[in-house]
Every structure is written in C-alpha cells, then in structure tokens.
Amino acid sequence: VLPLTSSCSRCFPHIVNLACKAVLAAITNLDLAREPSNEHEHRSFLDAVDRDPIATLHAFVRSVHSSPLQRQSFAQLTKQFFGHEIQPIHDVDTRWSSTFLMIDRAIFLQKAIVKMTEGFPELQKYALSVDDWNALITASEVLEIPHAFQQVLSAEKTPSLGKALLAFAALERQLTTLKKTRHTAASIIDAGLCKLAEYQERIKDVPAYLMAMGKIMCGNYMYQGLIPSSAGPRREIALV
C-alpha cells in the first residue's frame, strides 16, 4: 500500500511561487502587498516604508494609483521620457510574480519615478537612493528566473507533470549560477533554494512524476529514429 503522500501531485508553478515568496520574505515585508483594512493599518504601512526599497517602491506605486492628480502627472512624465503614457504596476499578494513585475516596470521607469518624487513634496519620503535602485535591480535578477519558469510551464496546453522534476533541477542550476555572480544576494537566493529543496524532497517518491517522465523518455526513444545524427546539438535538445 502506497503512503498517502505518494498520491499527491503538486503544482510546479505554485511551488515556484512559494519559492519566490521565500526569496521576498528574506528581503521585504510580504504583508505590504496586502491592502490596508483601515486607517490605522494604513498609517502603520506608511511607517514601514523605511524598512527596504521594495516596501518604499510599493508605497510609491500605491500613492500614485490612489491619487488622480499624481496618476495624471506620472502619465505626462512617462510620455515626456518614453513617448507614450505608462503606469507603474501595483503588486498584489495573490497574483503570481506581481512583485517582480512591479520592480521590473519600476526599473524601466526609473527616470520618471525619480522626477516624480522630486516634484511632489508628499512623495519625497519615497525617494530611492542609488543603493536602493541597485538592490531593486539585484532583486529583479533573482526573481526573473523563477518567473520565467512559471510563465513557461503554466502556459503549456499539454500536461507538464513529466517535466516537473527536470524543471526543478534546471531552476536550481539557474539560481545556483546566479549566486556565484551575485555574492551579495547569496542569502536571499538560498532562501528560494531551500524552499525548492523542501518540496523536491516531498515529491521525489511520488510515482506519478516518474511514470510521466518515463512516458516522455519512451516517446523520445520512438522519435529518435526520425532525427538524423548529423543534427548534432539540435538533436540532443529535441530529445530532451
């Protein structure tokens, strides 16, 4: 009789999302992505923006989104800098990769954000230093890797169960490689790797994953005879 855990097939994109949250928890307050339920909580949120650049950026985006005047002024600035109106992205706790998308958009809009914080006295408390922007760039580089895996696997029309363990290994390799070049981000990358390792330990003995992988391998062997050996590396990629 198989143990109960052997019948549990976990959603890989969801596990990657948990790894993203583990990374974010190492560098920011995840509760800041939740809408304040009352005025007291709103004030507490404002008091928290000096904790880290992601929290500060989140506060800036929330302020711009909630003020028609600021939103219009920001749109005019982006039109001046980029030729068309662009708004910052507001991250939401229940939306996958929303923090990465917020940071990525903010980096692109850096000139407009700096100008905006200089032009509005009430936004000056959200001004980001050069070190803050560098930290956001590093965070973006870390979060971009799991985001890419989420996008590819969650967008597939065919089941991806057989690719889950392979994707785990590939994701770990990408994060480990980044850790070698981004030494300052080693601790936050390790947070994501630890979360991935935790779930990998849970699913490695689930028969469904191995059976799905076996089916893919059998299909590759059947397909192998259709690809000429002269194809070289392209042949190897086609058989993965």
TrEMBL record:
Compartments (UniProt record): Nucleus
SUPFAM superfamilies: Ribonuclease H-like (SSF53098)
Lineage start: Eukaryota, Fungi, Dikarya, Basidiomycota, Agaricomycotina
Keywords, comma-separated and alphabetical: Metal-binding, Nucleus, Zinc, Zinc-finger
GO cellular component: nucleus
Record-given protein name: Uncharacterized protein
Superkingdom of the source species: Eukaryota
InterPro entries listed in its UniProt record: RNaseH-like_sf (IPR012337), ZnF_BED_domain_contain (IPR052035)
Example GO molecular function: zinc ion binding
PANTHER family noted in UniProt: ZINC FINGER BED DOMAIN-CONTAINING PROTEIN 39 (PTHR46481:SF10), ZINC FINGER BED DOMAIN-CONTAINING PROTEIN 4 (PTHR46481)
